[in-house]
Amino acid sequence: MVMVDAPVLRMSGVDLVRNGNLLLDSVSLTVREGEHWALLGANGAGKSTMLGLLGAQVHPTRGSVEVLGRLLGRVDLRWLRTRLGHVDPRHPLGAPLRLFEVVLTGLTNTIELVPRWRPSDDESARARRLVDDLGLGHRIDARWQTLSQGERGRALIARALVAEPKLLLLDEPATGLDLAAREQLLESLDLLRHNDPRLATVLVTHHLEELPASTTHAALLRAGRLVAAGPVAESLTTEHISACFDHPVRIDRVDGRWTARAGRRAAPAAC
């Protein structure tokens, strides 16, 4: 039986080895209800690997991972995945579904609509409400192939939330978006988090500018190890970000949003 105050996610001393390579090294992390985590790191740092563990896609080599109170290795992963929301901008849809139909596939955890399956009236209403909340009501009947990249990103968030998960995982959701589309996406995430205060989220990115203002915590990965993890005031600092990306970086926060720019390296001593 899962305790009410149990963490949504808990990783304890996790190593992950693949083809003889240590991809994650002694990683421990706890995510609780209502927390909104950023998972940051350079390319190859282990972000996608870690998200695969959190999304019940793979098992750890050593250590333990609990998702929604269930220990990986002692739970049916297919069952567990149906209770998670996962946003991947590389959604592999080939069929010419309409936006609303794509959102409904989140209820069956499938890429395309299941033959002869029909949503309940409550499920349809919830899907329409999410589409409206994400500013896509005017595009609800548009074919997937006609949507912009930004519209697809917001539709995938609606798809991930329509089954009312306790945990939402976002894998670089702002990838390929222009400035306006990115800002619409981040504003939508802020609104959804406000509307569902119990929802926990983990967002993967390597750009601080892609973090919503509602981000509460951050975990910084470098070469498979955590550089820092905790509330954003403690983790998203110039010192920690510079160490994470192995480059001098200066961090600023204005109106709840973060920016980063290169710091100055020490000048060589004059002869």
From TrEMBL:
Residues annotated as domain ABC transporter: 9-248
Record has Nucleotide-binding as a keyword: yes
Cited InterPro entries: AAA+_ATPase (IPR003593), ABC_transporter-like_ATP-bd (IPR003439), P-loop_NTPase (IPR027417)
Annotated GO MF terms: ATP binding; ATP hydrolysis activity
Magnesium listed as a keyword: no
Coiled coil: none
Alphabetic keyword roster: ATP-binding, Nucleotide-binding
Name listed for the protein in its UniProt record: ABC transporter ATP-binding protein
PROSITE patterns recorded: ABC_TRANSPORTER_2 (PS50893)
Superkingdom assignment: Bacteria
